[in-house]
Amino acid sequence: MAAKDSKSTIVHFDIATVAEKSGDFRRVLWTGEHSQLVIMTIPPGGEIGEEVHDENDQILSFVSGVGKAVIEGSTKTVKPGDIVVVPAGTKHNFVNDGPNPWVLYTVYGPADHADGAVHRTKEEADELEESGQDEPPTS
């Protein structure tokens, strides 16, 4: 849903239901003018992959599963109900070291992915990013 549509309606998600229905690695739920809401499911033994968003702050909220946040070399166990903030320019990774899928949602400011993007696997996400097919909208 584009930002222009959200001004006239309430944008609402039952995040537990959305998480339960989506096994995709990454799914963009909403893209606004200044931020973006994305849900992710990291399989057991999987990870987001070490990265730095030079232009985007990121706030991650964890719904189910457990794993490790690795921020600038420091590691912290993360569980459901936790929130982790990753300021722009910060090296980070999130690794699922638990036995179940690790479900989280994240808010990017500004948007980091193409509006409506669905990446079924990390490999698909990486391929689309590298090929330039997962670019955020421009104003």
Highlighted features:
single chain, 139 residues, alpha+beta, Jelly Rolls, six-stranded antiparallel beta sheet, three-stranded antiparallel beta sheet
What is the radius of gyration computed over CA atoms, rounded to a whole number of angstroms? 14 Å
Proportion of strand residues: 35-45%
Distance separating the two termini = 15 Å
**Oligomeric state:** single chain
What does the largest sheet look like? 6 strands, antiparallel
Question: For the largest beta sheet, what order do the strands appear in spatially?
Answer: 6-3-8-2-1-9
Mean pLDDT across all amino acids: 90
SSE class: alpha+beta
CATH class: Mainly Beta
- Stretches where pLDDT is under 50 for at least 5 consecutive residues are none
Overall number of domains: 1
The total count of helices amounts to 3
CATH architecture: Sandwich
- Assigned CATH superfamily: Jelly Rolls
Task: Describe the protein's topology.
Layout: H1 3-6, H2 15-21, E1 26-31, E2 36-42, E3 57-64, E4 67-71, E5 74-78, E6 83-86, E7 92-95, E8 102-109, E9 118-119, H3 122-130
Commentary on this structure:
- The chain is α+β, with helices and mostly antiparallel strands.
- The protein has one domain: Jelly Rolls (Sandwich).
- It has three helices and nine strands.
- The strands form two sheets. The protein has a six-stranded antiparallel beta sheet with strand order 6-3-8-2-1-9. Strands 5-4-7 form a three-stranded antiparallel beta sheet, with no helix packed on it.
- The longest helix is centred in the last third of the chain and has 9 residues.
- The protein is globular.
- The model has no long low-confidence stretch (mean pLDDT 90).
- Keywords: Isomerase.
- It holds the Pfam family Cupin_2.
- GO terms for molecular function: isomerase activity.
- It comes from Klenkia soli.
- This is Mannose-6-phosphate isomerase, cupin superfamily.
